[in-house]
Amino acid sequence: MILALESSCDETAVALFSPERGLAGEWISSQVATHARHGGVVPDLAAREHLRNFAPLLQRAQAEVGFAAVTRVAVTHGPGLAPCLALGVAAAQALGRALHVPVVGVNHLRGHVWSAFLPVHAENPTGFSARLDELLPHLGLIVSGGNTLLFTLDRARRLQVLAATRDDAAGEALDKGAKLLGLGYPGGPLIDQASRAGRADAFDFPRGIGARSDLGFSFSGLKTSLRYRIEKMGLAEVARDLPDLCASYQKAVVDALVRKTGLALEQGGGQYRSLGLSGGVANNRRLRERLAARAQRERVAFLPSRPEHTGDNAGMIAFAAWADPDCRLAEFLQVVPGLALEGT
Ligand code: KG4
User: What are the b/e assignments for 27-61, b being 16+ CB within 10 Å?
Assistant: First the structure.
């Protein structure tokens, strides 16, 4: 079993994963309410919360499943907020020593990459490798508060980043847009909710598309355009047109994501067998619907992460530590002196 810890931002999470049986348990403590008061995540406050939350979560994991079968501890070692990552790594190192098992560092983004395959594993754990062979090469889109990127996984499970955002991430664009509109934090779900009653063609916002063959994303122009629009409108008009503004703004974000993903599929020349969608913005109803339709048209399997694995979670970190060859081999944190790493 792999015991995984995640604390890169504002969720403290612990998971236990068994290759033969899948996720044996997940324990998470969210700080969203704490940071909502400040309109965004405050790093030092987040670190203090992680310090408070890890021990009770680990106690529950130990009581409900137990650590007797743990052969490895996995921990998110970046990217993320430095004081938060440091606490997770320190806790993992202590656990590695206490349980006499090695500790592996997992890149948070590799967690998002593999979260799209967790449902495939859950369906048939022992048949996972064979099924994965049918789903590779894979094209994936990660859309979170901090990242927006397109990547591929080849037949050897090797990751290659195709494109990223040049400025804001998609979730960041939604969060900042929501702030400008006077909605709360995090803004993505609030814009999603408000846009249900609005017309997506009411306002024209830029798509930040760039050259036809360019896969890179850009969302900062969109945010600026919303700010100018709001400044021209005045408060009463903004309040009246809020659903239309939200629907149009959200459509601009989703259009850009769908268009670039479609372009990457085209550029792949029919090689991809599956399309993944992960990260917090993957919860967006319209984005899911449109990418599912696109995948169907291209005859590739659509693999969206489950809602519980779109945001930060330790389940995806445990799974990546097992499924990703680079996590298994290259990113060991050699923190247990004298302990052999071979065969783990
Ligand atoms: O993966 P995640 O937790 O981000 C990082 O830690 O980087 O995702 C959080 C992001 C936030 O920007 C939030 O506004 C967005 O995901 N989000 C959504 C929805 N639910 C969460 N964006 C659009 N529609 C949603 N339903």
Answer: bbbebeeebeeeeebbeebbbbbbbebbeebbeeb
